[in-house]
Amino acid sequence: MHTVSYDFIVIGAGHNGLACAAYLAKAGAKVLVAERSARVGGGCHTEEVTLPGFKHNICSVVHTHIPTSPVYRDLELEHHGVRYVYPEHPRGTIFPDHKTIVMHREPERTAAELGRFSARDARTFTQLVNDYGEFFEATYLPLMYSPPLPPSAQTAELEKSEEGRTLLQWQVSTPVQLLNELFESEEVKVHFLNRLTVLNIAPDQHGLGWICLFRILLAEAPICVGGSGQLAAGLRSALEANGGAVQTGLGVRQILTRGNRAVGVEFEDGTRAETAKAVITNVEPKKSFLQMVGEESLPDTFATRVKNYHSRGRSLFALHLALSEPPRYRAAADNSSVDISFSQEMFGGSVEEQVRAYHDIAMGSPPRRAMLQVTLPTIFDPSQAPDGKHTAVIWQYAPYNVSPRGPEGWRDLRVEYASYVLDLWRSYAPNITQDKILAMTIQDPTDTVQINDNFINGVEVVGDLSPDQMGFFRPFANWSNYRSPLDGLYMCGGYCHPGGGVHAGAGHNAATVIAEDFALNKWWG
Ligand SMILES: Cc1cc2nc3c(=O)[nH]c(=O)nc-3n(C[C@H](O)[C@H](O)[C@H](O)COP(=O)(O)OP(=O)(O)OC[C@H]3O[C@@H](n4cnc5c(N)ncnc54)[C@H](O)[C@@H]3O)c2cc1C
């Protein structure tokens, strides 16, 4: 049988796989990206799922770090058609009494908004920006685009300054503890807690307080012009411009090994391809290692770690709407900017309620209270819908396993729950009468997994972002450097540091490690 050969084969054309491949191709390597589905991009996925001309973002909507990342610069993504727009108001939290807190890109204006609820909280926010703003820019972002530091090195770095030592304490506290320490207004606390829930981070889990701080400081919501699939198209274009190849509709069934070395792959159609250097997997660990490699070829301790890798967090219940006009919120009477903020978030009125809603989800109960995030990309990028029309995505946070039937439970529940969620939203935006909804598509958590089974249990960050699966421990202690126990097999997905989300950190960092291991021309960084 004829077997083709490449330097590197990347399994999966998620944005991480594409980014990793594009770096290696530009270093002169012969690279193939094999993608099982008919399109590239994984969670960067834009599709007309309601009516012709209405482009809906099926997974990611906002790419917070991409435009300022080394990946955007190095791969010259702007020249490959990837452009971002920045809403002036990144978020607006709406409370049950239709009061609202609307963030602004400028911290001074956000502080003024917080001051409507508490002068002390406004001062605290300003102080945090002064104390940690630069620190955040100078340390957090570079740490995303390099392999994770060992805990001792990270601690030593933080111990050097007063801010760093405070951060060490916040590192072990819960987000709720941090918010209670910093702020007095319940609304301000709820507003910042929302910023965390979108990351699938439990509000009352120890070891996550410091992430809350970074989310407080982060005030950008860049969206990709044309929809998030345009980022994938740009990465593919950058890869192909440098001689790399992508093949869609080509799933990998097996990673071929000889001794302790990965030497190629077998595709689902039974054909094979060899690698002169390495196989790189963008696919989550259980499928990559237990199915594609096979437990018998792995060290016991590694196989155990793969089995224990967990995705227990909550998922998203999504509604995609084609609208004839944008929502006008009742909360606009309190602050009209809420109508033009990137997203509107309705998460109930108190921190306690939010914590309880999270617990409901953990117990398998789709919450019967608002945990809503609504986004209309078309307000900022009209190209995503026909003239004058809009697309909206409504996310309600929900479990994948519905008690007592598990995922099957969604079959009976989805239509009724969609109508519950829609009515809940419309109680905040009464102008959206039925005639304004031109079409609607429901995406329950099982649909998300059907579309891309990289999101185990519908967890969008490709494995829980919990302290035992972050940084030096992601995906596993001793294996957070993108290498695996098999020579010639590397990891590059959101299950690696710096985690899920669209920032291409894992793809970038894996390429860096691989270039060093194979003495390639490392032209970046
Ligand atoms: C509903 C939802 C909303 C989200 N919103 C946001 C957001 O607004 N902002 C944000 O930053 N993030 C968001 N995310 C998360 C983000 O989309 C993911 O974390 C990100 O896509 C992970 O990227 P990745 O490249 O690691 O993997 P993926 O994007 O999952 O790509 C993996 C690829 O591997 C392919 N594959 C799987 N098995 C095989 C095989 N055997 N052979 C070949 N190919 C295979 C898959 O088809 C897929 O294309 C959201 C996710 C979901 C589900």
In words, what does this structure look like?
The protein is built from 16 helices and 18 strands. It has 525 residues and is of the alpha/beta class. The strands form 4 sheets. Strands 1, 2, 9, 10, 11, 12 and 18 form a 7-stranded mixed beta sheet that branches. A 7-stranded mixed beta sheet has the order 7-6-14-15-16-13-17, sandwiched between helices.
> How many extended strands?
18
* Rg from Cα: 23 Å
Largest sheet: 7 strands, mixed
- How far the N terminus sits from the C terminus, by CA atoms, comes to 41 Å
Please, how many helices? 16
Lay out the secondary structure.
Elements: E1 4-11, H1 15-26, E2 31-34, E3 46-47, E4 56-57, H2 70-74, E5 84-85, E6 89-94, E7 100-102, H3 107-115, H4 119-144, H5 151-159, H6 162-172, H7 175-182, H8 186-197, H9 209-217, E8 223-224, H10 229-241, E9 245-247, E10 252-258, E11 261-267, E12 272-281, H11 285-294, H12 300-308, E13 315-323, E14 341-346, H13 351-362, E15 372-375, E16 390-398, H14 409-426, E17 437-443, H15 445-451, E18 489-491, H16 505-517
Parallel strand pairs: 1-2, 1-12, 2-9, 6-14, 12-18
Antiparallel strand pairs: 3-4, 5-8, 6-7, 10-11, 11-12, 13-16, 13-17, 14-15, 15-16
Bound molecules: flavin-adenine dinucleotide.
Flavin-adenine dinucleotide binds at residues 11-17, 34-37, 42-43, 59-63, 251-252, 282-283, 316, 318, 448, 452, 454-455, 460-462, 493-494, 500-502.
